[in-house]
Design a protein that fits this description.
The structure holds two protein chains of two kinds. Chain A is an all-alpha fold. Helix content of chain A is about 65%, strand content about 0%. Chain A is globular, with a radius of gyration of 22 Å. Chain A starts with 6 loop residues before the first helix and ends in a 7-residue tail after the last helix. Helix content of chain B is about 65%, strand content about 0%. Chain B is globular and about 55 Å long. The chains are: A mainly alpha, B mainly alpha.
Chain lengths: ~375, ~200
Amino acid sequence: MNSGIDLQETFIDSLMGLGIPPGAAKAIWMPLPMFLIIIGATVGVLVVVWLERKISAAAQQRIGPEFAGPLGVLQAVADGIKLVFKEDIVPAKSDSILFTLGPVIVVIPVFLSFLVVPFGQNLVITDLNIGIFLWIALSSIAPIGLLMSGYASNNKYSLLGGLRAAAQSISYELPLALAVLAIAMMSNSLSTIDIVEQQSGYGILGWNVWRQPAGFLIFWISALAECERLPFDLPEAEEELVAGYQTEYSGMKFGLFYIGSYVNLILSSLLFAILYLGGWESPIPIELLGNLLGADETSPWLQVIDAALGITMTGLKAYFLIFLAILLRWTVPRVRIDQLLNLGWKFLLPVGLVNLLLTAGLKLAFPVAFGG
Amino acid sequence: MDLAQGVQIVSFAVLSVMMIGAALGVVLFSNVVYSAFLLGGVFISIAGMYILLNGDFVAAAQVLIYVGAVNVLILFAIMLVNKREDYQPMAKHWIRQGATALVCAGIFTLLSTMVLITPWSIAPNPVPGQNSTVQIGQHFFNDFLLPFEVASLLLLIAMIGAIVLARREYIPDEQLPDLTKQTGLTLPERPRELLNPQRK
């Protein structure tokens, strides 16, 4: 197996060549990918906000943002700057400590989950054994922050929104975990790297979408519900609850919710790409192309192209899914809260269980195709 | 002592302080909502301790189950009720608190003597990065199969009990809502000064 580029080893080796002890060299290396990922996620949010505006405009036959930069690409930046300079209001008789802590607790786990998102063989912050399980565990923290901000706002709409958010996120975590469990069963591992490697080798034919047709639908519906995207944006349903738990927030605290929800969307799309669409693998296996051109697999230029292609592929797949989510937002009406809970508990959960059972049976029957 | 060891010691100290502080807060706060939120802090610090002990799977499970499910449900229940009630200062309430403190201290001494006396059969140092998930799974389905299955039975009983409690079919006649007296749907909320246009 060709290991690709190992930036970490190269970096640490070069620092050690300068006479820095190995421990310190590793400590210098560690923050670099973290900052890179945080910056990448934030820039991703700007792109997604712009995309959302443009696509929604196209769906409604409008033009959308146009004047801020070419094609309005700077509109999201302008929005962000506006939020930074807005007055930060804490309502009277609200609980100011919990009011401030709420958005923080919502945002931190989302960014933390980027720890396990791989962009290539070695392009990941940590290859944890529990990989994808960490994401599920971390995503379950967010409802505490939502409940906290809903409670602290001292507003009935906020409280209702917070309660809805918690109920929704508890209900949809189960089908999500069941869908991921079926994948983990086929990959014999929870590590995101192993999950992608298990799909590699056959190009587009090896991706998990074909082996988990029910699983990927369950995952996508649950992921949309976890991100509180329309058709599942009940916690902040404008027509019913003003803005749900965000009602009393302004300025950068509102900005945190905003960033958190979009980063969560990006994260879910990335993980969907990793779990079901082969992660950094291109539709036509790169080794095949390399062999056709007669290039050596270990040659440096091929490895650079491979790594660049991996990042591009992951991004492309994620943005395709984000496009789908935005399109869904502007075509599908919102469900009612009882419909939402019925769908989660009475439909997705049993289907997820059956899917898990089927996957286990197929794994025993056809160990070649289902990762024996 | 190298860098990794130093980081471990510092994080152990920070986690311990966090855990004990949050646990004290859970017990001592009179506001039940603060207690519930701090309980989440306690669970998170325990998860951090598990990570320090190389138990990555256990740590993630701790966060998922205790923070994500148990604590959220506790908060959910508190907020659905949302009854803001100040405790009336009772006469001689120190007797109650003293008795509680005594019982807690007794349990603490009992547990710590148990921990110190028991000859623990500690496994040889776990290799960092070892796949603990696989090991836990193997133990669950080999030598700990019976407790594992009995625990699931227990959960099933609890679930059926909860369903029986929640779905009471009988509704007494006199408690049917009087439809002629229409009351607005109101959530209990702290009073706040609103502009009242009728009382101008």
